[in-house]
Amino acid sequence: MPESFKKTSLGGLLIRIGGYILLALGGVATLAPFYFMFVFATHQRSEIFGFPPPTWFGEHFWTNYQILVQKIPFWRAYWNNLYLALMTTIPSLFFCSLAGYAFAMYEFRWRERLFGVVMATLLVPAILNLIPFYLLIYQVGWINQPKALWVPAMAGAVGIFMMRQYILSSIPKELIDAARIDGCSEFQIYWRIVLPLIRPALGTLGLITFIGSWNRFADVNVIMRTQETKTLPVVLRTLQGATDVEWGAIMAGTALLVLPLLLAFALAARQLMEGLTAGAVKS
What we know:
By secondary structure, the protein is mainly alpha-helical.
């Protein structure tokens, strides 16, 4: 075997091993905060700030849970989280896919300009929209009402863009024309043909929208006025006082808050990967 070939093979092997090591370190760095969150959820405040800090699960999760339900309306806030996430995600899947289908398959006047306006909304940081958003909600009388949070989010620009790009890359116009020739109405084409074919993109958009809605904080804190209407991330913040912070209870609440996200990711992981890689390889 030539010496140059041996050196090339050895160099490639070392690069591959180095890549695996970097990926492993990145995985540890990503998972470590989640691990310690679950560990600290089972320890008291004094143990969390001890030295060395705990690295394995303790026996005080039930104590931390009791602090949660005594000091805040935990399960009411949890329901608010679930309600907001579902009421944002389900309509978003329908309206974003419908709009994306229209932008991808229909020719109408000012289509490109209208799509450009939709994309231009992404240039404005969300935090800059907070005050105008509050003034608008105040004018329509929706302060402290959950619909103020999910109605404006039913058709986001990111979702419309994702659906349009996926439909353009995966659905030929000849298929739509054939459905029209067979007598399908325009909505039947969307419902019976387009939706089943864009299921991976719907899974991706659904997961992204659900996680984003589940973690909303700033607008909920501004629009919702009472503890009974606020979501869990905002309510958990009230446990952080100036001098008394129940870190064990906060970690327990955060761990319970994260569990549905982990479950949603596990269920939609395949659709997420398919949706993100769609169009990356030419057929």
